[in-house]
Structure formats: C-alpha cells, structure tokens
Specification:
mainly alpha; two-stranded antiparallel sheet; 17 helices; elongated; disordered N terminus
Length: 514
C-alpha cells in the first residue's frame, strides 16, 4: 500500500537556505518534493553542448544596474508582494520551489495521461482521427500514445535544456545577484544560492515549456497559461526574482522554444499515421519471409497505430545507424522456437501467479497513463531531484533520457512495421493488460526501458543495478501480461540498451563532466 505524506507549507519567510515548514490537511500519494540548494550551481554550464540552439543564437538585453532607480523600484515592489502571503500563495511557492524543470516535466506527463485515450469507433464502424484544428472535439487531439508522448517529452526537454544553457551564459555575463543579496530586508521563502538571477531560470523554463506544450496539446492553452502565471508569480511571492529577471527569462525561453518547434514541425510526425503505406509494408514483410502478418484483433478492425512513425527524425544518430540497430526477424509461426514461446504464454494464461499479475499491471502504462516514456521520465526526474541537481543539470539529464526514449520509439516502430510480426492474441492467448493495435516485434516497453536504463545508469552509475532491474522487470511484464512473446521482449531490451548508448556517448562528450 502506498504511504501518504502531508503537503508541506512555508511557515516562515525570513530564512536563508533552510526551510521552516508546517503541514496542512492536503494529502498526496508520495513524498512532497521541496526546494533545495543545488549540490553545484554548474557555473560553467554555458559551455555545455546543446541540441539545436547555442547561446550565441539568441540575444538578451543587458539588465539595469542594481544601483539604478529602476531596480530600486523593482525591489520595493518585490518586498511589497512577498511580505505577507496567503496560504494559497505559500503552497504555490513550495510547489514550484521543487524545481522548474521538475514541475514542468510533471505537468507534461499529466497532460499525456489525460490524452492517452484511443478513439472509439462510431456507429458506422469507423475510428475517427483526432483533429489538431479542432482539438476539443471528440476524439480529442492528441491521442497521446507512447510514441507521441516520447516525442513530446523529447521536444520539451531539449527546449528546457538549450534555453537553460543560454540562460547560464547570460547569468554569468551580467552577474546580477539575487534580490536578497542586494537588499537583506527582502524576505525569501526558498534557498538562495550563488547563482546570478538575470535571466530567471524559472521564467526561462516556464516559457519554453509552455510553447512546446501548447503546440502539443492545443486544447490546453488556458490550463498551461494559468500554470505559467502561477509559476511566474511564485517567484515574486517567494522573494526570489524581480520583474525584470522574469521578463528576460520569458524572452529567452520564447527564442529557444521557437527553434525547437521549427524542428518539430518538420520531423515527419505529420505523416506518421499514413495508412496508405500499410499495404506495401505487409507485402514487403511477406517478401522477407513473414508467413503470418499481424492483423487487428478488435471489432471493427482498427487501423494500425502510427505505421510510419519509424520515419520520424531521430535525435542521437542517423537513418543508416537505425538500419544497423534493427534486429533480425522474430521466430516464425510454426518454428520450434515460436512453439516454445507460445507454450510459455499458454502456461501463464492458465497459471499466472499473483506476483506475475502484479508486475504485469504495475508496468502496464496503458490507457489513461502517461505511458512507458512518461514512467521512465518520472524515474529520471526523481533521481535528478534526489541528487540535488541544478536546473541546468536536471534539464540535461531529462534531455538525454527523453531523446533516447524518442529514438527508441522510432527504432521500435520501424522494426514493428518492417517485420509485421503477429501478436500472441492471434494464436488464442488472452491478454490481461489491454490490446495494442500494432505489430508485436519488438516490444515497445522493452525498447523504451532498455534505452532509459542505459542512460540513467551512465548518469547515476551507483544506481545501475536498480535501473537495470527496473528495465528487466518492465520487459518481462509484457510476457506476464501475455501481450508479447519472449523474443519480442528480450530482443527489444537489448535494442533499447544499444539505442541508449548513443545518448550516453553524447552525454560523455557534452562538456558537463558526467
């Protein structure tokens, strides 16, 4: 049973790096993440390798001097705003104080879960396609399936990371100290580090995140704007930034996010659901030796999900490398290995243990969840938070994991439709964890998990056994759920680790020291 912990509130506002906290009667289902002083401010982060936008690609005006009349006015306004807070304002300061990157990744996962619902068929037996031009109509846009969610999280994390590297460049160029270090009478509600405050890293992340998320979830613009407003206000309520810090951060976040969105608009996702390609894919699979191709087991037959996602642009390697990473074919129906793997599933079907059922359900990450990529991004965010990473290092961690996850999705989906391998359900096996509408080989859960575990093990080597054990359990969960053959899972896990190695290599060469 999950433990329940009280949400923590600010009890006093005039303290430095320590927090005096009181509890209220709100509860959540895991420990509340609160602010910390980073283990390092990563003052050299402006030199780290970015993905799309270098610090020299963006511009930012110099701030007013802290001795200027304009800055003095800002300080006066800040003290007025932060002097006496309501309980709701205190809660917002604590919530956002856990970290800008941490919270916006969490919001993104929540949106993915909200939209991870496959369209239902109409009375005429047709499955309508969500329409980005009318996102709130039924079925709502997007259908945030695992590939969509992986791509969204990669775009989000790259925007956050590139924007923060640029922010660090300007922070150390202008070296504006925190308001409370200019005027000791400013009341602060969160730890104050040595990091310069112009531009505000929180405003950078909030704005860049909002640009990406509003494009990915166009029906949630009002919700996202409200989150940005609260996040921005929390920095004033907590005495952490003056208004010009926030305005500069928003400017920078917009510039970087625009470059990420330009890539997203041209990455091939718009053609990922091209159903006209499937007939040719089936023919090609048969020519490669596939004796029985996958077919939808739903009634009416549901069109296969994202048959051309394998053509979407990659982050950490090129198309030639993708072809090299593609595994050989799965055991063919009727072969001895196939019969052995089918018999294993038939046995689980009859004699599934409680532990097997627990593992299958824990890792199911099906409809209404934030999918396997979201599951692993939560693991990554929590690990970075527990390591007390700076915002820029947290963003780097999530960008490495998220781009590996999207690459894993592209490679996995390319393999699925390359071989068009049938699922166990075509041979009488009943699944306990849903029925994915795409070919079986290789397992998406396994590929995603192998990639994420490889990256996280590189960043947190002391936790390698933990991450690899999680990946292995996620992989075998699909066998216990009777949704994949063993070859789907074992090969997918190896493929995922190989895919993740390219993000690992990038991370080792990005100048961050990890």
């Amino acid at each position: 049973m999950k433990s329940v912990h009280k949400l923590l509130l600010i009890g006093g506002l005039t303290f430095g790096a320590s927090l005096s906290l009181i509890s209220c009667d709100k509860t959540i289902e895991e420990a509340q993440r609160v602010a910390y002083s980073p283990a390092s401010v990563d003052d050299k982060a402006s030199t780290w390798k970015t993905y799309l936008s270098a610090p020299t690609d963006v511009t930012l005006a110099a701030p007013e001097a802290t001795t200027s009349a304009a800055y003095t006015t800002e300080l006066t306004n800040l003290k007025s705003v932060s002097n006496s807070l309501t309980q709701q304002q205190q809660e917002a300061v604590v919530y956002w104080g856990a970290g800008a990157v941490y919270r916006w990744n969490e919001i993104a996962r929540e949106l993915a879960a909200r939209y991870n619902l496959a369209p239902a068929s109409t009375a005429a037996g047709v499955y309508p396609v969500p329409n980005a031009a009318d996102p709130t109509a039924d079925p709502k846009f997007p259908f945030a399936n695992p590939p969509y969610t992986a791509r969204m999280l990669a775009s989000l994390s790259v925007a956050q990371y590139d924007a923060l590297v640029a922010a660090w460049s300007f922070k150390y160029k202008f070296k504006r100290p925190a308001p409370s270090k200019v005027d000791a009478t400013v009341k602060v509600a969160l730890p104050v580090s040595a990091l310069p405050t112009y531009p505000s890293e929180d405003a950078v992340v909030a704005t860049a995140s909002a640009v990406i998320l509003k494009a990915m979830f166009p029906g949630e613009v009002a919700f996202i704007d409200a989150k940005v407003a609260e996040h921005r206000a929390s920095r004033l309520w907590g005495g952490m930034n003056v208004e010009s810090d926030l305005l500069a951060g928003a400017d920078l976040g917009n510039q970087v996010a625009a470059k990420v969105m330009a890539r997203a608009k041209a990455d091939g996702m718009s053609a990922a659901n091209n159903q006209t390609l499937t007939a040719g894919m089936i023919t090609a699979a048969k020519e490669r030796g596939q004796t029985e191709v996958w077919v939808s087991q739903e009634s009416p037959l549901r069109p296969p999900m994202l048959p051309n996602y394998g053509a979407v642009q990659l982050w950490n390697f090129d198309r030639a490398t993708l072809a090299k990473l593609r595994p050989g074919p799965a055991p063919l129906p009727g072969s001895d290995q196939f019969k052995k793997e089918l018999a294993e599933l038939q046995n689980i079907n009859k004699n599934q243990t409680r532990e097997q059922a627990r593992i299958a359900n824990y890792w199911a990450d099906g409809a209404g969840s934030y999918t396997p990529p979201g599951h692993w991004m939560r693991t990554a965010a929590n690990a970075a938070h527990e390591a007390r990473y700076s915002e820029v290092r947290m963003a780097r961690t999530l960008a490495l994991v998220a781009t590996a996850l999207q690459d894993a999705g592209v490679c996995c989906w390319e393999t699925k439709y390359y071989y068009y391998t049938p699922r166990p359900q075509q041979f009488g096996v009943k699944t306990s964890v849903g029925l994915p509408n795409f070919p079986s080989y290789t397992s998406g859960h396994s590929t995603f998990s192998g990639a994420a575990a490889a990256v996280l093990s590189s960043i947190f080597p002391e936790r390698t056994d933990e991450f690899m054990a999680k990946a292995a359990e996620a992989s075998v969960s699909r066998i216990y759920g009777m949704i994949h053959f063993r070859s789907d899972c074992e090969v997918g896990l190896v493929c995922g680790k190989n895919i993740g190695s390219y993000a690992v290599a990038r991370g080792k060469a990005d100048g961050s020291g990890l």
